[in-house]
Amino acid sequence: MALSSNTNLRVRYAETDQMGIVYHSNYLIWFEVGRSELFRDLNLPYTEFEKQGLGLAVVEANCRYRKPTRYDDELVVVTKVESMTSRSVTFTYHVYRDETLVADGKTVHVFINQNGRPSDVRKYEIWQRLQPILEKHTASVVPLS
After folding, report:
1. For the segment 29-75, what is each residue's pLDDT rounded down to a tens digit?
2. Whole-structure pTM value
3. Running DSSP on this structure, what letter comes out for residue 86?
4. CB 141 within 8 A of CB 81
5. Can you list the pairs that 10-15 forms with residues at least 24 positions away whose Cβ atoms lie under 8 Å?
6. Which residue in 17, 72, 73, 98 is the catalytic one?
C-alpha cells in the first residue's frame, strides 16, 4: 500500500488564461496542495516540520500536460510518495477530471535545516512520528540511509 492522498479541486477563473484554459504553472501549485494534504492526512501538517526548523526544498519538478482543463472543472489530484530516504523525498502526481488523466508529474525534495543546508530528517523529533508511518508502507519507501 503506497502513501497517497486524493485532493479535490475546482478550477477557479483566475487560474485560466485568455483562451480559457488553465495556465500551466497552476499545476505545480496544485501539486503543492496535494503534498500538503498528504501530510495533513497523516496528521503531520507541514507546519510541524517548520516548527522544528526543517524544510523541504524542491530540487526538481516536472509536469506533463495531457488534456486541457478549464474554469469550473472538478479535478482530483492524486499524490503519492514514490520514494524517501533520510535526506530526500520524491512525490508523484496524477490530476484527473472524472476518469480522464489531464496531467501528471513528479517533484523531488531535499530536507533542509534553518540555514538552508541539506539535513538528515532522522535528527529531528518529527522522525519519531514519521518513522512508524513509513514502516507501515515499506513497499513504497526505499531503505533509509
Report:
1. 999 999 999 999 989 999 999 999 999 999 999 999 999 999 999 99
2. 0.90
3. S
4. yes
5. 10/72, 10/73, 10/74, 10/75, 11/69, 11/70, 11/71, 11/72, 11/73, 11/75, 12/71, 13/71, 15/71
6. 17
Please give the Cα distance from 23 to 91 (Å, whole number): 22
Find, among 89, 99, 34, the residue nearest to 63 by Cα: 34
pLDDT class of 138 with cuts at 50, 70, 90? low
Q: Measured between alpha carbons, how far is 71 from 11 in angstroms, rounded to an integer?
A: 5
Measured in whole angstroms, the distance separating CA 8 from the mean position of its chain's CA atoms is: 14
**Which residue in the block uniquely carries the three cell numbers 526538481?**
60
* Closest to 86 (Cα-Cα) out of 118, 43, 53, 129: 118
**pLDDT given at position 133:** 84
17 as an active site residue: the answer is yes
